[in-house]
Automatic annotation (TrEMBL):
It comes from the Eukaryota. Interacts with PLAAT4. Residues 259-352 form the Transglutaminase-like domain. Its main location: membrane. Coiled coil: none annotated. Binds 1 Ca(2+) ion per subunit. Its EC number is 2.3.2.13. This is Protein-glutamine gamma-glutamyltransferase K.
């Protein structure tokens, strides 16, 4: 006869930084020791009695798949392995210190204890109330999600509220978001999302796998994930995306209704829910907003605008767009699957825009690889590179049907990339993490390196005369609702010869996603410029 109990759940949870999760089950982080007390029917004899623990997760636990773990008693604990040691004896009670592996599968484990006596008698006990939840461990140096800065861990793992940014780069707005990862039912809801995903339990030990599948599961396309996206303006039958102020209601509703997608979300909602799930599972995560965010639809790594012979837009070809803002996520981890130097922040986007390997998901893409234009490194680095650093290229069709490049805007995309600052509600500009200084030699090398791996690899191979520059200036802070917008268009002849040009102007109303609603004004005028004249 024996039964076991978990020594001071509070002690274990304080040690494992899981004390803020609601409830009193044992929630531990991998790669770190925890303690169990066992009450036996007689004193335990280390010389003659044998004892081992079994931890099982998933529907088909297997030792070979690391979903069935057998933990033997040892004299001394060693790092990086599953094992247990008796650290205290008191009559019929023994206390075990149990060491877990830093690459253990995360999720719910069923714990059983078996004791064998010299006479061949064995007793096994399982108490479902003593099951264990295993999470990733940013405090463990051997875990690939390890983060060394204590203040950053407090922000990116333990903070349950945050700020999401929206609007335009001239008028950046911020809204408070309740992540609520420690509230009642939230751990179960986040594990439910993982259970509903395609990733089998053996794959849940690799954070690269886990965040990739979460980016697919937060949107409802393909897999009946958490949120249905809606950009139509008609939200009948659901909640307007702007009405949400946190993730809790969304995730609880998804679990309660058996995996029925919750209506409706847009980019900031997808991002906020992703932050909740990853922080809950123990992966450092933050929501990130990119202003003037490009949507490259053809993997050209450029944002392309097409015009006919008369400079009329080619609507059927103009599928690329630039959003006022777009919100995605950064998550923190080492990338042993990539060349050294690509660990740290990884970009992840749960908003369904383009498919990746047949599924609406995006990332994780190394932010370092994005910055340097190494878009051949997985996952989905070309798409995120284009969002933050693609050139906006204008093409005109010639009489022979061939398109010629007529203009290239090198600074039109990827401004004021923002996230909530560590330890305060201030906005932190992290543009420098995603791209070199705009116009610098390093930034140009990154753009041209990236383009060589796209569908238009020769776009920068021929040099072009760019001796007439064009700049549109906005007076003050730019256009506001209900007020006139004062625009100044400055053309400058950079050459020592006169230039005759035609200026085409189109002012249009568009959604924040870059989709045109209607044209306000359209005009064209000849402009003659003397040498070096502005």
């Amino acid at each position: 006869m024996l039964f076991h109990r978990l020594t001071s759940v509070n002690w274990n949870r304080m040690e494992h930084h899981t004390d803020r999760y609601h409830g009193n089950e044992l929630i531990i982080r991998r790669g770190q020791t925890f303690q169990i007390e066992l009450d036996l029917s007689r004193p335990f004899n280390s010389n003659t009695d044998k004892l081992h623990l079994d931890l099982k997760t998933g529907p088909l636990p297997m030792v070979s798949k690391n979903t069935h773990v057998i933990i033997q008693l040892v004299e001394e604990l060693e790092d990086d392995r599953w094992e247990a040691k008796i650290v205290e004896r008191n009559g019929n009670r023994i206390k075990l210190s149990v060491n877990s592996h830093a690459k253990a599968v995360i999720g719910q484990y069923k714990l059983t204890v078996t004791v064998e006596s010299p006479k061949g008698e064995s007793a096994t006990t399982h108490d479902p109330r003593k099951d264990i939840v295993m999470l990733f461990n940013p405090w463990c140096e051997d875990d690939t999600v390890y983060m060394d800065d204590e203040e950053e861990k407090k922000e990116y793992v333990l903070n349950d509220t945050g700020r999401l940014y929206y609007g335009t780069e001239k008028q950046i707005g911020g809204r408070t978001w309740n992540y609520g990862q420690f509230l009642e039912g939230m751990l179960e809801a986040c594990l439910y999302v993982l259970e509903k995903s395609e990733v089998p339990p053996p794959g849940r030990g690799d954070p690269v796998n886990v965040v990739r599948v979460i980016s697919a599961m937060i949107n409802s396309q393909d897999d009946n994930g958490v949120l249905a996206g809606n950009w139509s303006g008609n939200y009948v039958g659901g909640v307007s995306p702007t009405a949400w102020n946190g993730s809790v209601e969304i995730l609880k509703k998804y679990q309660k209704e058996g995996g029925l997608p919750v209506k409706y979300g847009q980019c900031w909602v997808f991002s906020g829910v992703t932050t909740t799930v990853l922080r809950c599972l123990g992966i450092p995560c933050r929501s990130v907003t990119n202003f003037q965010s490009a949507h490259d639809t053809d993997v050209s790594l450029t944002t392309d605008m097409y015009f006919d012979e008369n400079m009329e837009p080619f609507d059927e070809l103009n599928t690329d767009s630039v959003w006022n803002f777009h919100v995605w996520n950064d998550c923190w981890m080492a990338r042993p699957d990539l060349p050294p130097g690509n660990g740290g922040w990884q970009a992840l986007d749960a908003t369904p825009q383009e498919t990746s390997q047949g599924t609406f998901r995006c990332g994780p893409a190394s932010v370092t690889a994005i910055r340097t234009g190494q878009v051949y490194l997985k996952y989905d680095t070309p798409f995120i590179f284009a969002e933050v650093n693609s050139d906006k290229i204008y093409w005109q069709r010639n009489l022979d049907g061939i398109f010629t490049q007529i203009q290239c805007e090198k600074k039109a995309v990827g401004h004021c990339i923002s996230t909530k600052a560590v330890g305060s509600d201030e906005r932190d500009d992290i543009t420098h993490l995603y791209k070199h200084t705009e116009g610098s030699e390093e930034e140009r090398i990154a753009v041209e390196t990236a383009s060589r791996y796209g569908t238009k690899p020769d776009v920068y191979s021929t040099s072009r005369a760019e001796d007439v520059s064009l700049e549109v200036k906005l007076e003050g802070e730019g256009p506001r609702m209900g007020a006139d917008a004062q625009l100044t268009i400055v053309m400058t002849n950079l050459s020592s010869q006169a230039r005759k040009t035609t200026l085409h102007i189109q002012v249009a109303v568009m959604y924040y996603t870059g989709v045109l609603k209607g044209t306000v004004k359209k005009d064209k005028m000849p402009v003659a410029l003397k040498p070096n004249e502005g």
